[in-house]
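Table S7 (text form). Paired inputs.
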Amino acid sequence: MDTADAAGPLHGAAIVLAGGRGERLGGADKPALRIGDRSMLDIALAAVAGPPVVVVGPDRETPAGVAVVREEPAGGGPAAAIAAGLAALPRLPADARIVVLAADLPAIDAGTVHLLCSRVTAGGAVLVDGSGRRQWLVGAWRRQALTEAVHRRSDWHGRSVRELLGPIDPVEVSGSEAAAADVDTIEDWERWQSDGYHL
């Protein structure tokens, strides 16, 4: 599945997390690493193209209309980044679907995003990998549910994404192994290069 429904994207907005220090990659900027002819940030942005998109991380070039913000203080982790991204989105209806993606997903695509959004009920939907583990940074969430989750704390700096999103009790969605894969190490990145994926 690599294309969204012909009627257009189901989501109302997206938050793409493009920070992190890439410690296991020798300090490399993970979102800037290329898979084929695209960076991983480009891949994530293509998957959520259309509605308002906020990238959370250091200043970087993005397509027109894509906002870039930073959690304060910087380096607060993905939960703090989600909170910062949510605050930067335009006003949306309570039932709008907000997609949250990490920018280190080599095979994420619009079809997977559409699948997640189509499965959202009152709270959200999260992708699970082949071992049944929830991939918290590949999900779609109702705006009201995500807002209420963020407002449970005044500061999410250093807190876990599971602590933020877990209480929403999302629907679990099984996707392809590739869609759930991320790049954490140089070996991961090299594997995607050498295995000849064409994304």
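Next pair, protein 2 of 2.
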Amino acid sequence: MSLPYAGHLWISPSYISLQNGWALGGYGGTEVMHAQNGLGLAANYFQWNGDVPSSTGTGSMFNLGFLYENTLANVLGVAPGRVPDIRLSIFGLLADSSLELPEKSTITLKNVKQLKYGADLTYQALNWFSVMLRGDTVNYDLDIPGYIFSAITGRLTFCSHYLSGERIYLQYSRYIYGDKMLLAGLWQTKDGGGGWPLVAGAGATQEQYAGQKPDANVIKLQAEIAF
């Protein structure tokens, strides 16, 4: 939806049904909901832990995402492309997973609700330079405290406009982690159960780092060309 002065709003619902995700392969494939292929979905959302009697990676997901954008130029009724200008983005994504577990499964976590939300504000000072401030929060389980982390990010962007879209980003992010967001982290349910990986690939973390907090300070330098 796009309205004069009010900006742009995107709403994106989706539904995913997965049957025996553990058997769908773990190499390549299409990325859906930050998970690559059926096996990735099974591990990230359907409690696949490498043990078929406990979980086959079967279930369904309902997802609802939104993005709202507006600029100061649009609010003032000015033609786009003016500088200086300010752009605001507000976004969110809800993932509601329902698991279908084997009859004798010891897993008691049968429904997981996850939510990501945040906002960023960009000041386009010049045609070739902008400053952005962004905040993100990811709640990995709305029903169990501790599975949450946030990030505050500042970014400087330099654009050359020499060919068509050269950009260099320099950004710093500060992460704040909940008590249960650890390297090679494991699920811990309300009834004291759990013990399987939070996300696909968690076993790749070297043993000496397992259970430690991830890095809190991250600096990123990125260059890109679009043509």
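The chain has a mean pLDDT of 88.
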